[in-house]
Specification:
The chain has about 250 residues and is an alpha+beta fold. It is built from 6 helices and 9 strands. A 6-stranded mixed beta sheet has the order 5-3-4-7-8-9, sandwiched between helices. A hairpin with a 2-residue loop joins strand 1 and strand 2. The longest helix is centred in the C-terminal third of the chain and has 15 residues. The protein is globular, with a radius of gyration of 20 Å.
Length: about 250
């Protein structure tokens, strides 16, 4: 879960002072005044962007050596031919930004959430082509961040909750309040669809991230620790069943 970092600030000659506008500067677009956002459910057309964003969060944590996903494997994970009911399988919400308003959404299972933010400082979109949205014909929409979650189960409840796997924003879109929008949207989906909780791992070393989740109402249980059986230790069990069958 990535914390906010210092926003790149253009020189005074690059700043536009109109109410809501943008300017193209070589490969950069600078947005000032207002920024329009759309939170929507990811589709197959977003695979390349999801792959890049997942890589970036691994890069942030210095875990790129552990990143094993490909666009093909992500397609098999996120967009199965016979998917589970909406939000029960692995789900990705994308937050898009634009210097111009989004069209009113149609009802498509999950109705996209449209919001406007007043900017206190210019926002620089420095990867225009890499993160231009492919969702519809709106050419000035860019992928800013994502939330990744899926249904989980516990013997303590008779209904599922959400496991909130990760929340990430590209550097230009941090410190704008968009994390609250994205996490709040996931929480709203849970509350409105009979899920009993939203839970996940909170990095205690990351104070900004920790404080963010506490301020969003998350309760931290200090008496529990996160455990994981993986790698070689997991593979020790791979042939255990076969050996027991052969000795019966």
């Amino acid at each position: 879960m990535a914390p906010a970092t210092q926003q790149p600030t253009p020189s005074p000659s690059e700043i536009i002072t109109t109410h809501a506008s943008s300017e193209s500067n070589n490969d950069n677009i600078i947005i000032t005044g207002k920024i329009y956002t759309r939170v929507r459910l990811a589709t197959k057309s977003d695979l390349s962007h999801i792959y890049q964003l997942f890589y970036q969060i691994h890069e942030y944590h210095n875990y790129t050596h552990l990143y094993k996903a490909t666009e093909s494997s992500l397609e098999g994970l996120l967009f199965k031919e016979n998917p589970l009911p909406l939000f029960y399988g692995p789900s990705v919400l994308l937050l898009e930004v634009s210097p111009t308003p989004f069209n009113e959404p149609t009802n498509e299972g999950f109705k996209p959430v449209l919001t406007t933010f007043d900017l206190k400082f210019p926002v620089v979109e420095g990867q225009v082509e890499e993160f231009r949205s492919k969702y519809d014909d709106k050419s000035d929409a860019y992928i800013a961040g994502y939330a990744f979650f899926y249904a989980n189960y516990s013997c303590f409840n008779d209904k599922p909750g959400f496991y909130f796997e990760s929340l990430y924003f590209r550097e230009s879109y941090r410190k704008l309040g968009m994390g609250k929008l994205l996490f709040g949207t996931v929480s709203s989906i849970a509350a409105n669809n009979g899920f009993v909780s939203v839970e996940g791992i909170i990095a205690v070393w990351n104070k900004k991230s920790y404080d963010f989740y506490i301020n969003m109402g998350v309760e931290v249980f200090d008496e529990f620790r996160y455990g994981k059986l993986h790698g070689e230790n997991l593979q020790k069990y791979a042939d255990k069943g076969k050996i027991e069958e052969e000795t019966c």
